[in-house]
Amino acid sequence: MEGARSAATERPLGGALAATAGPRGAVPDEAPASEEMRAFGGVAVARRRFPPGEYVAPPASAGHLVTLHLNGPVPGTWQPAQGRARGYVEARGDVIVVPAGTGCRQAPHAESEDLSVLVPDGFLRRVAGEAGADPDRLEVLHRFCARDEQAERIMLSFLPEIETGGLGGELYAEGLANAFAVHLLRHHSSLGERARRGIARGPAEGSGLSAHALKAATDYVGDNLAGGLSLVELAAQANLSPYHFSRLFKRSTGVSPHQYVVRERVRKAEELLRGGLPVAAVAREVGFADQGHLSRHTKRLLGATPGEILAEGKAERAGGGEAAGGGA
Fold it and tell me: What keyword terms does UniProt attach to this protein (predicted)?
């Protein structure tokens, strides 16, 4: 199975997991650097395009690689590290799961575009342990051209993070990474049925954070809006694992930790804007990446831009001053 690009120079995946590789890890020289892996919340993600040719991926010892096919039907040849080559037609939305420690050869016959998520084995085992499963019994299962709509939805949620350089923030990225790891455990691992039901069910139905734990977490958010606010930090306030904290917090508040933090940042931003603080300073004060990030969320939650809120506050203060002067 010698293709026109079988001699292409292999290049390690970028990001925090640069020493690992997965399917199509042999990236052609002409592939743009922006397509390298980038770390997000405990996993590494890349959107990559591959011209027709053969790509050889050595066994990846550090992580399980999941790819989502993004463009139209692409025929080709696939050969696992230990197995015979076979033809395939990869359709849009098809998912491939390659467990850690396995390699492959893949030869698309037309340009192929994929979204890849590399899940470190240690991260997946940690999430399994937090969810009540036995990490020592965990084995990720190989999948090829499978349909998995939930995995597709989660993976596509990483795309805006790639395009904006993680604009959603660390807390959002961690939530996505944990959700994806749990999905991989539920649907693409060898965990027994009993353990799988436990992961799916989670904490007892109707339970939530204790009043003390909820107050500790929300007080921490209020005191640290300008900072990064990671899921690990919030979970520590409640003495829980990130996995259990996320589930119990949502049961207590009706929103995810990330959604709660965004709402609190917008609430505080509105207060500061109405008080006359400049937009750029408000964005920094409440932890948004920039004015555009702040504007996107105020328009979504309040129906107004920061400039409009600032102007409204100025008018309100002027009106209040005139009323006070008139009554003097």
Answer: DNA-binding, Transcription, Transcription regulation
**Where does the pLDDT of residue 24 fall: very low under 50, low under 70, confident under 90, or very high at 90 and above?**
very low
Helical axes 170-187 vs 193-201, angle rounded to 10°:
150
Q: Which residue has the tokens 């997946």?
A: 124
**Do 181 and 211 share a structural domain?**
no
pLDDT (average), residues 203-208? 62
Last residue of one domain, picked from the residues 198, 232, 255: 198
Task: Compute how many other C-beta atoms are within 10 angstroms of the C-beta atom of residue 208.
Answer: 17
Domain count, the chain: 2
pLDDT at 94: 94
How big is the CA angle at 245 (ends 155 and 124), to the nearest 5 degrees?
A: 45
Residue 189 DSSP one-character state: B
* CA-wise closest residue to 33 among 54, 44, 47, 21: 47
- For 109-161, the pLDDT digits (tens) are 999 999 999 999 999 999 998 888 888 888 999 888 899 999 999 999 998 88
Q: Give CA 149 to chain center in angstroms.
A: 16
Residue 188 pLDDT greater than 80, yes or no: yes
